[in-house]
Amino acid sequence: MKVQIYEIRSVEDAKKVIEAGADHIGVPYAEVPKYPGHVTCEEAKEIFEVVPSDVLKIGLTISEDLEEILRNFSVVVPDVLHLSGDIEGITPDQIKTLKEKVPGLKIMQAIPVYQDVPLEDQKALDYVKEYERVSDYFLIDTKVVSENVIGATGKVHDWNIDRAIVDSTDVPCIIAGGLSSENVAEAIRISKPYGVDSFTSTNYDEIHDEKRIKDPDKVKAFVEAARNA
Predict the structure, then answer these.
(1) What mean pLDDT is reported for the chain?
(2) Strand bridging mode 173-175 / 195-198
(3) Which CATH number fits domain 2-227: 3.20.20.70, 3.90.1170.40, 3.30.70.100, 3.40.50.1820?
């Protein structure tokens, strides 16, 4: 079971999370960060430089501007680019073009799932079918109507929807959305994913430094719960 930890905002947090056993390190970045927790491309590069080769470097962008995304690669090149903005803002053909321009680039496409909405009333499976030809991973995460971006809500959605998505595709699926050391085993039991992701539940209860938010004890507990599920 692969374990992915977001949001890494500093070299110090990256080292703590790696030591706690994470397989994927997630860093949200932008040329000009507009969201709390996002770092600059230069800061992301510094973080990724301390990540060993056996840990996957995941770079998250909410940009829908391909030229901006390509410019970012002149500064920082993650192992996997996580597209987490409006899913309809970048088409599969545009992603194909992006991968052609950056040989070897892998894509993690976020798939939005809404709380308390039955699967038949969501577009998740349609998005999976549409984007699987250009995606190396799917990140299934909770979406709230008021936000264009996907995820970082700390809200749990129906894991049976995750299972339906996992069963519908050969693309490795990582599940997210309010997962913690207390509920991740049950989420894994129901959805049978490739991996699990945590952001909110592995942060300190009280954050005094916005660059150093990860609680190593919570990260370790999450990793152990996922691996023992």
Answers:
(1) 94
(2) parallel
(3) 3.20.20.70
